[in-house]
Automatic annotation (TrEMBL):
Annotated organism of origin: Nocardioides simplex
UniProt-listed Pfam families: H2O2_YaaD
Biological-process GO terms, alphabetical: response to hydroperoxide
CC annotations in GO: cytosol
Protein name: UPF0246 protein YaaA
InterPro entries with a match to the protein in the record: YaaA
Domain of life where this protein originates: Bacteria
Length: 259
């Protein structure tokens, strides 16, 4: 099973640690594309901070994020599971997992990244700011870079297992599994039900996804089909409704009434 997570916009900033080593990251086939995006981002932030703030969608009060990007090659790094923060990662709470769940997290989780394409939780990365919809001078949209680079790499990483896609729409556009993988692709949507009405609420969505992933990792189940995943989540106490299979996989709706 391979579970894909979205990144967080906010990130912790390590104060010490070895500098970035692209060759040491998982999925080394992405090194060339990673270097391209890194070089374009660093050059923009070093050469034209005002333009960089515009491209990155930053306010005048966020100039420190431009400076941080300019220093990425030499910045301290930490494990990705310590860099990414926010509601989903707070609910996932890797640090408090059992030893066996942590091992599963290392092998089964991957985080979509506009700078690195995809990272594993044990990859050492710096804190950075780059949205998935950004377009960098002399490179173009970062999403286009990853659409070209990720396909064969992620197909190989998936192997014969089930893909559980929890990415947001922006990051899902980096790589969409082909129809040949559809029988082994499950996308998960969280719906908040209140007074008979269902809707997607960002906070519920993120927190519930983090808790779902944590429960799966602690349980240790390894479902191989969307149906088996739905059954596993039901056994773990979630209310799950399964949609009809499509060319992009099968959507599972997890319905919650409270956080």
């Amino acid at each position: 099973m391979l579970i894909l997570l979205p990144p967080s916009e906010g990130k912790s900033v390590p104060t010490r640690g070895a500098p970035l080593d692209l060759s040491g990251l998982s999925l080394p086939e992405l090194t060339g594309a990673r270097q391209q995006v890194l070089d374009a981002l660093v050059s923009l932030c070093r050469d034209d901070p005002a333009k960089a703030a515009e491209v990155l969608g930053l306010s005048a009060g966020q100039a420190d994020l431009v400076l941080r990007n300019a220093d990425l090659p030499d910045a301290p790094t930490a494990r990705a599971d310590r860099i990414y923060t926010g509601v989903l990662y707070d609910a996932l709470d890797v640090a408090s997992m059992s030893s066996s769940a942590k091992r599963r997290a290392t092998s089964r989780l991957a985080v979509a990244s506009s700078l690195f394409g995809m990272v594993r939780l044990g990859d050492r990365i710096p804190s950075y700011r780059l949205s998935g919809d950004a377009s960098l001078p002399h490179l173009g949209p970062v999403a286009a870079v990853w659409r070209e680079a990720l396909g064969p790499v992620m197909t190989a990483a998936l192997g014969r297992g089930l893909l559980v896609d929890l990415r947001s729409g922006m990051y899902a556009s980096f790589w969409r599994p082909g129809p040949e993988l559809a029988p082994r692709v499950a996308t998960v949507r969280v719906l908040h039900e209140h007074n008979g009405t269902r809707k997607v609420v960002s906070h519920f969505n993120k927190a519930t996804k983090g808790r779902i992933v944590r429960a799966l990792l602690e349980d240790g189940a390894d479902p191989r089909t969307p149906k088996a995943l739905a059954e596993t989540l039901g056994r773990l106490g979630w209310a799950v409704e399964m949609g009809a299979p499509g060319k992009g996989g099968t959507q599972l709706d997890v319905v919650v009434s409270e956080l």
